[in-house]
# Entry
Amino acid sequence: MTSIAKQTPLPDQRPQEPERRRLLGSHNSHHVMFYGFLLPAIVLTLIFTLYPLIQSLPLMFQRWPGYGKPRYIGFQNIQHLFTDPEFFAAIGRTLWLTAATAAGTVVIGTALAIAFYRKIPLTNTLKFLAFFPVILPPAVYALAWKNALDPTLGWVNKIPGLSHNWLSDPDTAMWAVIFVSTIQYVGIPMILMLSAMNDIPESANDAATLDGCNAWQRIWHVILPMSRDVLVVVIGLQIIGNFKTLDTVYALTKGGPGLATDILPTFIYRQGFELSNFGFASTAAFFGTLLIVALTYIYTHYFRPQKMSNQ
Amino acid sequence: MSISELDDPTPTRPATTTTNGQKRRLPRKGARHSTGSIVVSIIVFIFVLIGILPIISIILGSLKSTTQIVGDPLGLPIPLQFGNYARGWAGVAVGESMSTYFVNTVAFSVVAVIVSTIAGTMAAYAIARAATRTSTIFERSFTLLYALPYLAVIIPLFSITGDFGLRSNPFGIGLVFGAGWLFLTVILMFGFFASFPNDVIEAAKTDGASEIRIFLSIVVPMSKGAILSCVLLAFIYSWNNLSHTLPLLVDPASTTVAPGLLLFSAQYRVDLGAQFAGIVISIVPLVGAYALMHKHIMESFRVGSFR
Amino acid sequence: MKRPTKGSSALRIGVLLASASLALAACGGSSSGGGGQSGGDPFSGELKVQVYGDWPFVKQNAEAFMKAHPGAKIDVGGITNDDLRQSGGRLFTSDDAPDVVSYTLQPSLMEEWISADALTPLDDVWDKDGIAKTVSETTARIATAADGKKYSVPLGLTQTPYLFYNKDAWAAAGATPPDPNTHQFASVEQFNSAMDALKKAGKVPLSIPGSFIEYMFNAPFQTSCGSAKYQEIATNWKPGGESAAKFTDPCAVKAIDQVSTWAKGGYFAPGLESMTFEQSQTLFDTQKAGSWIMGSWVPPVYEPKDFKWDWAMLPSLGTEPTAHGIGVDSFLVPARAKNPPLAKSFISYMIQKDTLESGMGRIPARTDTDLSKVIKSQLEISLADAAAKGTQVPYWSTTATVSQEQAFAQNVVAGAMTGKISAQDAAQKLQDAGDQYRQQHQ
# Structure
């Protein structure tokens, strides 16, 4: 998020002005107001996020089909999880989906941003349409593509050279998922890059022109540093998104064929809701969450400070 | 680059004079496009078309018979099956009508948006203005909680919502979803409030206004754009929601649109035309909002990406 | 730049949150009891019924029941077999539990529900109406739980699989159909040559959706191993019931291999795994496919307009003729039903001869009805007749556990049928799933 023109200090680096500590009044009412404003959020989080989380912890040591009495089975779930090749494969696939979709959306999104920055004909209409899939329900969009990709009855296969069982062939199913995911969300890096390009102040542009750079060289020297930041942001979003949501994959392939597109959320869903093994599902969710937290932490600390120094 | 730019979402290109006074030659309106850019435009058009073709297929399909849908997906809907919309709106005999789903979805979304926006904005304000270690801990916690997969909590939530009498109640489950969504609101509004002009608040304080007064009469009105972004994002994700509505709205009369659509094509039923009509009906609010506010929506997503 | 240290404020927040959560955990968590039994008149009160496949029939008769018993108020809604499979247990033990539900019995799930006390025993209904005398032995056996009690009342039969074939297309392709009286192929070779002929004529020989592919396996398993051994293999997962017969036995592997061979021979449509039910029906309806593998519930809801059709059994791989695979669509009463007496009266009413003969529309579980009054479709009557007179066997996918079905989809369908893993390995995975289930439920 380096805008050459404007720069918002990151929270960690906010100057600790003495006035700020007194911001919310005198010392005693400071606490009251502080917690007062936070109260709704805290209460809601306690009841609907932390309480269920705590309730799900003992589940890791139980066998429970979702109703009736749970049975205590000790560390069996954990043992099973760490010796389960399907679990690790699911995580691997989630990371692969994340990386591929991030790369795809950034590359194509940047290309689109350049085109729109250069104001090609029909820019506004095309921009409107390019971003449109972002706001659609992922399940609906995926369902639409599922119909389109059907080998016998879909229209994709009628295009010469594209005739294949995209969703049924374990070798190509993941690519199909990556494709749908990419096309749907290409709009996000697109607007990020476009705003960044539009933010270049005229003075920098003019200086470059004076130095003899043509339009393309100007863009290139802006894009490189910009892309890195956008890529970092997009990967961060993708990590969280892919580890959380299963709508697209579930609607397209349900994790199949076999397990070829099984990602962590579909793994957890299957164990819990289809195999009625909520103890094991909770275990997978717990360790999966640890992984996301670790990844998010790394993302926050490793990448962000660098962004600030990157002018 | 902050959320405060929201009130001017598309920065226009500045003046045509360069710093040394020479006029830069911008292409005039009529002779704007080179062949190169026309070619690029065509390529982009094809790409964009691929992206929306499946949706066009669904819209076309909403006016076809089931056999036509499956047999001729891109063909023109002739004859036009307006009956699909009647059946789509009336709903499957076994399910409820679309109007019921819409009412439930509105209830769910409104509650989720209000809850997450109010709780999130207030919390973000508190954290942003008090620069203490405590507030930083809260900020970090909310960020981490945002990354939490709903799958980790959805099962216990089934029992909890039952105990509180919220299950199978669109308002109640809207509350639950809002409680999960507020983390993102906090993150977004935190960034905004962190760069909020201090002097305005200080001025009001010297005038003797209370904290609540300042917040409600000064800060909130000045943050309209940012808050609107949060509202838009929350609304879009609430309307489409399946993660909470599917497992927690058990009673059929309380179902929302997204899970309700699944009933059209379940088990032995074959009424794709009505399902597609139902899908089209259900995305009308989204498409309408996008058509009216697309610039603002794009900005919301842009800002939402930067934590 | 100050970073948060593990200072007193962090500790304070931590303690605050933890104690609050624990307090909530202590007070919350007790579900208020519901589901009081309304004593007295078993013909009045409110009833919540949720069915799917027979919805119009049940709704119609609920109205008739309400006319006959003005004190009763019956609400008929919908819930699919898939929903029940995923959330039945939770639903039946919660306050949202309906009073009556219809379900195609899946034995492993039924046992799980029974052992979690999620269902109400219905032996009294069986005794009162003498059901055991009016249904086939196979039906009664399927409805009897491990503890000897009955937790379901049979309404209708789902018979699968059948090969519905386009008589005109077969004739045009020169494919020899099976004997119109016995509906059986003379041999696997006859079946194969018919398939080859259809393929040559440019038709998809067999249309079947990915989620129903298990239909293809019932006949091969049953005829390759013999009915008795096949049942042993299929119920091998029952706790305390480990038998010597396994999926890895040569007869079962041969069955998997045969279907695999058919797949490699191009007898199915490409993209089988992801094909939906609607797509498979359309293939058959538009005559792009020569046959459709489906169940007995099709003829009441579908009739081809442009060609004539008939049904056949899948070919036998052994000496036994192919048997009819039976699934039983039954009424269940959840444990938390709010009005069990009315539920039982309603169920009893639904399975009376008169009620069924008012036009149920598909094969009833009772064998003593006048089929011409129950069913409109001639094809369907023919199916019902054949099963009543012929041999029946519970079909394998409703005999296996849910985890075995998953293993089936992942290994047999995605693997053995596409040649990516051997039939032996696929069989091993199926057996492993059953063994694991048995161990976990000891």
In short: The interface with chain B takes residues 2-5, 7, 9-10, 13, 28-32, 52-53, 55-56, 59, 77-78, 80-82, 87, 90-91, 94-96, 276-279, 281-282, 285-286, 297, 301 of chain C (CB under 8 Å).
